[in-house]
Amino acid sequence: MHHFEYRNGVLHAEGVPVPDIARDVGTPFYCYSTATLTRHYQVFSDAFSSMDALICYSVKANSNLAVLKTLARQGSGADIVSEGELQRALMAGMPADKIVFSGVGKTAGEMAYALDVGIHQFNVESEPELYLLSQVAQQKGMTAAVAPRINPDVDARTHKKITTGTQQNKFGLPWESAGAVCQMATDLPGIELVGLDVHIGSQLTDLEPYENAFSRVAELVRELREAGHTIDRVDLGGGLGIPYHPEDAEPPHPDQYAAMIERIIGPLNCEIILEPGRLIAGNAGIMVAEVIYVKTNGDRTFVILDGAMNDLIRPSFYDAYHQIWPVTEPAEDAVSLPIDFVGPVCESADTFAVQRMSPPYQAGDLVAFLSAGAYGAVMSSSYNSRPLIPEVLVDADRFAVTRRRPDFQEMLAGESIPDWL
Predict the structure, then answer these.
(1) Residue 211 is part of a domain; what is its CATH number?
(2) Each residue of 370-382: pLDDT tens digit?
(3) How far is 74 from 80, CA to CA, in rounded Å?
(4) For the whole model, what pTM was predicted?
(5) I want to staple 275 with a disulfide (CB 3.0 to 4.6 A). Which of 9, 207, 238, 368 is the partner?
């Protein structure tokens, strides 16, 4: 569900006409709905209300400070993978003791900062990381709470670039080494073993892979406890998918997900940590672009937009599908034709959709890419020296720019030419 709909023939973001935003901030831009963000968070949170659950929004999905502040006001914690994301979460008011630090490449400096602010736990992904964290904690006279990330070798049956739970992926520790790693964590100074972590991938639309992975984790927790280890927390990661294509099967509802977790993990009587990202932010955002040209090459029609792959890379990177809506609602009898939607970047990969059946467009028309709230702005770049595009947050009938478009002088301000040139 989202709060983007046509009213009197014009696409609205909640109570704000999208053309009004375009006139104010220019195109392209991202637009996020407060009502959608808060509803998705509350539906997910309510599903786990009967359990000892800590919800840590996955900051990498959408790290805009206004989005994070919106979720912090709902009570969310944060799952972060860098010091930059940690700083963002703290600036947005997410308490340090509700923050977990994931990721395979934490540096000593990042570890030290996270210890200083008092995060909830480190999700440790390798023995070398565990040794380094021990050293950093000892030097500071502190103790780091850790949950080794155990790889259950379960195929999430999702896109190969967002699968994380098999032996071919860089994430996590081998299942067979779980006992040895937990013993290492118990023995190392400056380390407190508090639980286990697992995450098998993103955009899952079937509960079976989760059930397979979580069943293995529950069995492992019992074995580790019998061996004398303290396992009081189980971090189950995130990954629940959203519908991108109108013909996609509806992904599992958070209530179904929670019921499965309560059945499998509930009997362990431990804190459950959850890291939703796309599920919260994905359908809460759109990207709006303007048609520059309509070009015909033989029997192909190209709609050339001012938005490009550097602004929304998912289609070129993941072959991802996004619904594309005209901002002005087409007439009921409008005839659709196959259109290639492309951007101005000098790459053939700068293509959003190929032969997509769509009503005709002309220069100056606005289009909206749906389900762009997750892994959109956060993955954007300034390729071709194109400025990063604005981000806008809507709340009922008001909107505010939460990241402005830099001008070219600002883009170049960090560069310099050596004296010898």
Answers:
(1) 3.20.20.10
(2) 999 999 999 999 9
(3) 18
(4) 0.94
(5) 238
